[in-house]
Amino acid sequence: MKGRLRFVVTAGPTREHLDPVRFLTNPSTGKMGFAVARAAAARGHETVLVAGPVALRTPKGVRRVDVVSARDMSAAVEEALDRGPRTTVFIAVAAVADWRPAKTAARKLKKREMPGVLRLVRNPDILKSASASVKVGFAAETDNVLAEARRKCREKGLAFIVANDVTEKGSGFGTDTNRVTFLRADGSVERLPMMSKLAVARRIVKACEALARPA
Ligand code: CTP
């Protein structure tokens, strides 16, 4: 395909281990990120999917890199964006854990060794530090949805952000549908109706194509 782009997509949760059998995580299932990777590959783009621990099949034509922690995800994204001269689009769909335990024990901790208070340190912001021709983020919020999304779009240097209210029925974690709003860096707002995650993914991929190859 002429004008083939490289899409790098993150999906799913990350796990931040306290010891080999305990970790901090969140309820992300990876469905939205996998749909984005599927839609990008179906349009003929080179597609790398950096996936946290999820129970989903790899979409056709997608190169999948499995990771566990936010730091693993960060390294895999950097590597995927670094390869070769092709124009890159980075779409961060993963629900990255913002914090990890300050210490990870190599063996299972006994309850008598468990501190009553867990010391946490910040994880890297993968989307903010990534360099790509077009960067797109997600903002899954419970309140002040548009204001929060606008702030993240600006602070992370995004072409646009996909905002959704995870408290709304049919949106958010584990569903097959989503109702999202695109907020662009130029201030424009496009509210989409409730649709399948794959349909949302196709809209995102088309918007990225237009931004990466302006007419
Ligand atoms: N993101 C990321 N790396 C992180 C945190 C978030 O790449 N360490 C990406 C997510 O994949 C998403 C976007 O940034 O595309 C927004 O995620 P969110 O968790 O809402 O952002 P935070 O910066 O953690 O915002 P908040 O101030 O709400 O905690």
Ligand names: cytidine-5'-triphosphate
Name of the CATH architecture = 3-Layer(aba) Sandwich
Count every helix, treating DSSP H or I runs of 4 or more residues as helices. Answer: 5
Order of the strands making up the biggest sheet: 5-4-1-6-9-10-12-13
| Sheet having the most strands | 8 strands, mixed
Inertia-based shape: globular
Strand residues, percent:
25-35%
CATH class: Alpha Beta
Helix content: 25-40%
What count of domains describes the coordinates?
Answer: 1
Task: Note down, in words, how this protein is organized.
With 215 residues, this protein is α/β, with parallel strands linked by helices. The protein has a single domain, classed as CoaB-like (Rossmann fold, 3-Layer(aba) Sandwich). The chain has 5 helices and 14 strands. The protein has helices at 31-42, 70-82, 126-129, 145-155, 197-212; strands at 6-11, 16-19, 22-24, 46-51, 62-66, 88-92, 99-101, 120-122, 134-141, 160-165, 177-178, 181-184, 189-191, 195-196. Strands 5-4-1-6-9-10-12-13 form an 8-stranded mixed β-sheet, with helices on both faces. Strands 2-3 form a two-stranded antiparallel ribbon. A two-stranded antiparallel sheet has the order 7-8. A hairpin with a 2-residue loop joins strand 2 (16-19) and strand 3. The protein is globular, with a radius of gyration of 17 Å. The two termini are 17 Å apart. Cytidine-5'-triphosphate binds at residues 10, 70, 92, 94, 96, 98, 123, 125-127, 137-139, 152. The site of cytidine-5'-triphosphate (CTP) has 14 residues, from helix 3 and strand 9.
